[in-house]
Structures are given as C-alpha cells and as structure tokens.
Amino acid sequence: MFIPLHDANTLKHIKVQWVTLALIALNIAVWLLTSLESEQAAQATTVGLGYIPAIAFGHAMLAQGLEIVPEPLTYLTYAFVHTGFWHLAGNMIFLWVFGDNVEDAMGHLRFLIFYLVCAAAGALCHGLLTMTSEAPLVGASGAVSGVVAAYVMLHPRVRVWVLVFFRVPLPLPAFVPLLLWIGQQFFMLAIAPDGDVSWGAHVGGILAGAFLILVLRRPGVPLFDRQIVTPRAVRNDPGAGPAIAAGTGGRTAQRFPWGRR
Questions:
Q1: Predicted confidence (pLDDT) per residue in 245-256, tens digit
Q2: 159: left (phi over 0), alpha (psi -120 to 50) or beta
Q3: Tell me, what CATH number does 46's domain have?
C-alpha cells in the first residue's frame, strides 16, 4: 500500500534511539550471516530459530539436530530472521521511521521490552490461528506492527512522507496511511487467514502495541498529540525567536509566518 520515507518528528527525551538502531543492526547481521550460509544451512536456521505452531502446541516435534534454541525462545528469535532482502528491508524501513519516536516516548529499556513483547504477541496470535501448522514463522513484522500501532496513538497528526503504490511521494498526517495499513491487516486476516503472509502475527503485534503504549510510555507523555510539546532545547533558549509564541493556558503554540496555527 505504501512505504514510509520520513517523519518530521524530533526526539524530545532522548538524544539517540540506541535500541532502535541496535535492533536494526541485529536484524541486518542475522540476515547477512544467513545469506552467507548454504541453502540447506539457511533452511536449518529458519527452522531452528523460526516459530512453528505445531511444535509450540505439541502437535509435532522438531527433528533431532535442528533445534538451535529452546522452543519457548522461538517466540522471540523468529523476529530476527528474514527470508530475503525485501522482507528485511520492508520491516526495517518501518522500524527506522517510526521506532525512534516510540522509543523516545518510553525510554530505552521499556522500548526494548515493548518490542519483544509485541514480537511474542505476534507469534502467539499466529499460533492460536494455525495450531497445527509446521511452517516456520519468521520476520519482524509482528514487533514492527506493534511499533506502528503505538506511533499512531502517540502522533496521529505528524506529517509523514510516504511513497504510495511505490510511485507517488506524499506528505500525509500519520493517521491516514497508518490507520489504512492497520485496517488492511485486519481485513486480510478475515479474508485470507491461511495465506503466505501471517496477518495474524501482524494483528497480534498491533493489539499488543496499542495496549502497551498505554502503560509503558513516560509519565506526562500525551496520547493523540493532544498538546504541542516543544523540544527542551528550544524551551530553554531565551533567544529562540518568533517561531515559538505563548499559547493560552501557559502552553506553547506554533506561530506560522502566515499567521495560522
């Protein structure tokens, strides 16, 4: 439907999104290592680290020698394995554009917990819908779906540049493309639950992300952009200039050159 390119949304509480960058680096590193393996070894990695519902729910057992981590850990490890470049790139672009502001709203440690819980929720939802499936689930889309849900609850009005249908770049309020994307996940789950894409993992991540942002965000961080929060560096600069003007009730409001707010 669209590819996010950039959001005009500065960080307010952290200087660098270290966890987001580390997650991207780890996903790329795992993909590179897997790409260097032989086809047989890469398939073994996918089976050993992927989440397999039939094994998780006791309907099958993994062949001896294929287990890389204990089965409960596959609720997390599957999210760091990708089957191809575009599979990796799609997830990492979403994480790059939206992860920094969600991390900013939570802090580093809580964002890491948030990401991993969303990944596990995606796997669990996928498993509950396909309990007897022996196909391994891989990819970060469950966790990234949680990031998208949290972002749209935090910053629905932020302008996001998106590439629509891989051709047309447009600046849109975040809620327009992201709510359409979220709706697509539920719609596809309803009409194609057994397709090659695990819509169930996406939906599980979305539900987890929407709930966790309520409890893991920093105290005082608003939802739905209900107030404009000026970056600390601007608030503390007495010479910030006419771009920031006092608003009603002691809040700050953006003054535009043409007099609109």
A1: 333 344 333 333
A2: beta
A3: 1.20.1540.10
